[in-house]
């Protein structure tokens, strides 16, 4: 994790992986925030991280889950960020992790057992991605900021789904939304 943090700092000025203002608290704001997913769920099968950016939470989870049987796919359309992710996979010797440098909406359906997304889009705008890429009994773990309750209310107007909220361990006003069975309302 230290090596990953060092590389995030090194590459950040060139490709803006995280907001420069948050670099001082990389460990708490980004790494611990991403790692908390691993304390909420024990994964197996195929895990898909959408809009991985610099690897949050995808690379953090890949590091934590190296010894488990989980297979991870990181989807990131920005070519330079995807190159960074591939470099991290090589440098950290992460196995069973791949990067798709494509748009989420263009990738063939992934039938994921689990999906994560952090700082990617509003819950309403994430719904088509979940419908496309979740397996029928799959679950999504959506890392949401302080407006999560409003986002949930808005998404319920156009979509049917089951949702359970987990209070964030790094910000008591934020939440991880566990979403399953999404479909058009
Ligand atoms: C705000 S960043 C968040 C990155 C990371 N998840 C994090 O928490 O730091 C959103 C990322 O999603 C990627 N992205 C946005 N829309 C996408 C799409 N339709 N398909 C693939 N990647 C997308 C962007 O290139 C960007 O790297």
Automatic annotation (TrEMBL):
GO terms for molecular function: methyltransferase activity. It comes from Paracoccus albicereus. Specifically methylates the N7 position of guanine in position 527 of 16S rRNA. It comes from the Bacteria. InterPro entries: rRNA_ssu_MeTfrase_G, SAM-dependent_MTases_sf. NCBIfam families: rsmG_gidB. Keywords: Cytoplasm, Methyltransferase, Plasmid, rRNA processing, S-adenosyl-L-methionine, Transferase. It is found in: Cytoplasm. Signal peptide: none annotated. It is an enzyme of class 2 (transferase). Belongs to the methyltransferase superfamily. RNA methyltransferase RsmG family. It catalyses: guanosine(527) in 16S rRNA + S-adenosyl-L-methionine = N(7)-methylguanosine(527) in 16S rRNA + S-adenosyl-L-homocysteine. S-adenosyl-L-methionine binds at residues 51, 56, 104-105, 118. This is Ribosomal RNA small subunit methyltransferase G. Its EC number is 2.1.1.170. The keyword Nucleus does not apply. GO terms for biological process: methylation.
């Amino acid at each position: 994790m230290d090596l990953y943090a060092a590389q995030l700092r090194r590459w950040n000025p060139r490709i803006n992986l995280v907001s420069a203002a948050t670099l001082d608290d990389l460990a708490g704001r980004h790494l611990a925030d991403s790692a908390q997913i691993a304390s909420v769920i024990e994964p197996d099968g195929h895990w898909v991280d959408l809009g991985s950016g610099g690897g949050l939470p995808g690379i953090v989870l890949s590091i934590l889950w190296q010894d488990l049987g989980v297979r991870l796919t990181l989807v990131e359309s920005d070519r330079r960020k995807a190159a960074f992710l591939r470099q991290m996979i090589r440098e950290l010797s992460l196995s069973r992790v791949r990067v798709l440098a494509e748009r989420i909406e263009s990738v063939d359906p992934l039938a994921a057992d689990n999906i994560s997304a952090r700082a990617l889009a509003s819950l309403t705008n994430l719904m088509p991605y979940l419908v496309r890429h979740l397996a029928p009994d799959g679950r999504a773990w959506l890392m949401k900021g302080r407006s999560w309750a409003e986002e949930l209310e808005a998404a319920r107007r156009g979509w049917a789904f089951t949702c359970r909220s987990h209070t964030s361990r790094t910000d008591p006003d934020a939440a991880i939304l566990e979403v399953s069975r999404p479909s058009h309302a």
